[in-house]
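Convert to structure. Protein one:
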Amino acid sequence: MNKTDKIYVAGHRGLVGSAIVRSLQEKGYTNIVGRTHKELDLTNQADVNRFFEEEKPDIVVLAAAKVGGINANNTKPAEFAYENMQVQCNVIKCCHDFKVKKLLFLGSTCIYPRMAPQPIPEDALLTGPLEETNEAYAIAKIAGLEMCKFFKRQYGDDFISCMPTNLYGPHDNYNLQDSHVLPAMIRKFHEAKEKGEATVELWGTGSPLREFLYVDDMADACVFLLENYSGEQHVNIGTGKEVTIKELAETVRKTVGFEGEIRWNPEMPDGTPRKLTKVDKLHELGWHHKVELEEGVKLAYEWFKENIGCARMEGR
């Protein structure tokens, strides 16, 4: 990669894409292109073709996706499957047709089998049944990841993929109808504290184990891979560390300063029992995370408080 390469970040306003833009800028990349959904509908093949023909990007980061937590995945599986596959097919094919120098496709660790070995190695993909609560999203992401592999294998395209673990940080989604667990906790504890409420209800039993990565660390790893990796196999991006959801809740509660009681609702789903990535491959390449969970939660909460008026909070 050259500092003057034109880099198109699809999804540049989201949690992942905005962090990648920040990381690229910090490393001296000056020619970064982004389009909002209103400006470019990535599900529209003709529009995507027209964009690539006009802009001719050298590098593409595909961070645009329809994402959400357990509730969103359970209630809108057709949308998750269709929209994500449309976006992926359009962008990946254009990267090939317009001879993009390098493509980075972002998957998600939720596409691994529900009962994958722990920590989860990269070669666990497609070795068992998926977690039902995010099956549609997982199938779409698997299709995109495999498509990158096939284009590399058949045409020699420099298309690489990475598999970030659970992410959080600036520009996260705080809509309680479709947010992920950590931002949902931040909002619930904050609002309960502001209202003087005595309890906060959280879904499930609190027993599942999860790994969390601050989004700016993820972005740093993505740029590192763009600069240093061209292998066919996808690469896990994570910390290699895990906590229970109960431990996470205590960390968030302490950070926010909520002094009331947490009530767990075991009638609601827990999701996958455990999900920890094996990050040996990334470590061997020379990258390690920097932000630990307690520090990251503090950073995320500070951003939330400072941006509460413009954060994604639909369904207040």
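Protein two, convert as well:
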Amino acid sequence: MEDLTTPQPPIITLTNIDIYQKKLMILHNLSLTIHKGEFVYLIGKTGTGKSSILKLLIADEKAYGEQAEIVGYNLKTIKTKQIPYLRRKLGIIFQDYQLLAEKTVFDNLDNALKAIGWKNKNEREERVMKALEKVGLGTKHFKYPHQLSGGEQQRVCIARALLNDPELLIADEPTGNLDPITSEEIFQIFHHINKKGTTVLIATHDFMMIDKFPSRSLLIEDGKIIDSGL
């Protein structure tokens, strides 16, 4: 019988990493480990460095320090040409939806697949519809972003992030523009995705949702991380 208490291997490892914003160090000797299959909140006041950590994880910021690894990539030595391949293993969701207004929901997701090299039209269509069904939008693929509510637009963004069956889903304030009921629906989707095996890391101020869906939290305070250990 499988020992469910055995920890999964790390999917993110940061050891003694310094993080800068415009040459100003905002986090010093940052260390954290997130294992495969975990659901983790990254919390802290505005300006404490949450978004900077996420930018480092997607190789938008340079890593300085001892060790910085994510989904098998070394962020200290990663080459520019490797970054698209790293991001194919990640699902990335930001507060601003970044949907193309003149494209339908389907075409927004189809374009995302084209951009990362998916050439077969039938395979793209299958992936797009599968991702939309996961977030409950399988019947709204023909709509344009302006015809959707804010919550539905965020669901489209989640579907876009799921197109590549990512190992790790990263979200930065994904419910910052949403009402509490819609926020709860979005968090339910995140937890459902996590239960299917995808690791989830969410930077959020939404403490109402953290109370409703408790999980391990990493609090950034005074330049350090305090781990809830849940």
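Residues 184 and 211 are 11 Å apart (CA to CA). The longest strand covers residues 10-21.
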